[in-house]
Design a protein that fits this description.
The structure holds two protein chains of two kinds. In chain A, strands 2, 4, 5, 6, 9, 10 and 11 form a seven-stranded mixed β-sheet that branches. In chain A, strands 1-3-8-7 form a four-stranded antiparallel β-sheet, with no helix packed on it. The radius of gyration of chain A is 13 Å and the shape is globular. Chain A has no helices and eleven strands. Chain A has strands spanning 5-7, 10-13, 19-24, 31-37, 43-50, 53-57, 65-68, 75-79, 88-95, 105-106, 110-114. Chain B has no helices and eleven strands. Chain B is mostly beta strands. Classes of the chains: A mainly beta, B mainly beta. Chain A binds chain B through residues 31, 33, 35, 41-45, 48, 50, 55-56, 91, 98-101, 103-109, and chain B through 30-31, 33, 37, 41-45, 48, 50, 88, 90, 92-93, 95-104.
Chain lengths: 115, 111
């Protein structure tokens, strides 16, 4: 089965530094998402992306966050100035359509630790 | 805002015992999905329910969607150690597209 690939698997950074999390979605997917999961907690929606623009974002996704699909394949999440509370597992996910009955395929995640 | 709630948060069972997790939405859902996340892993799609009162089975797993399409349950018969993980229900957001996840039920199975 095709997979969503995320790199790096772990990222350690100092508070205030910029990080870029990378994802290679499944090739025929059209809709992409970033979710995050703080240890032991639920999977929280951050942002959805379609046709090279953000289609929806949550309250968590403030001005410090941005997403891009620079080359038509990679999908990136940038955190401009990391805070301690940004420490979490970040999952990229994709779906074929925006239909709400479409299942999502998740990547293995990037564990971000902000020190 | 729209919420999806799950109980219990944790469930510890002896191997061979049954397990049930319950999911409730603050709004009527067009469909509900269930995902399993193994320890250290990522959410993996299990099933989707669409119709009111729908019941679906996957081997020892039984999924149910409530008549009002606001609640759902997952029941595992005769748990095995391979069932260990966190089970999440998820429903579509008000604006469509995104999925809103419940808090998850973490299942541990003692051999």
């Amino acid at each position: 089965e095709p997979e969503v690939t995320q790199t790096p698997s772990h990222q350690v950074t100092q508070m205030g530094q910029e990080v870029i999390l990378r994802c290679v979605p499944i090739s025929n997917h059209l809709y992409f998402y970033w979710y995050r999961q703080i240890l032991g907690q639920k999977v929280e929606f951050l942002v959805s992306f379609y046709n090279n623009e953000i289609s929806e974002k949550s309250e968590i996704f403030d001005d410090q966050f941005s997403v891009e699909r620079p080359d038509g394949s990679n999908f990136t999440l940038k955190i401009r100035s990391t805070k301690l509370e940004d420490s979490a597992m970040y999952f990229c996910a994709g779906g074929g359509t925006l239909a709400t009955n479409e299942k999502l395929f998740f990547g293995s995640g990037t564990q971000l630790s902000v020190l | 805002g729209q919420q999806v709630m799950q109980i219990p948060q944790y469930q510890h069972v002896q191997e061979g015992e049954d397990f049930t997790t319950y999911c409730n939405s603050s709004t009527t859902l067009s469909n509900i999905q269930w995902y399993k996340q193994r320890p250290g892993g990522h959410p993996v799609f299990l099933i989707q329910l669409v119709k009111s009162g729908e019941v679906k089975k996957q081997k020892r797993l039984t999924f149910q969607f409530g008549e009002a399409k606001k609640n759902s349950s997952l029941h595992i018969t005769a748990t095995q150690t391979t069932d260990v993980g966190t089970y999440f229900c998820a429903g579509p957001g008000n604006q469509g597209g995104k999925l809103i996840f419940g808090q998850g039920t973490e299942l541990s199975v003692k051999p």
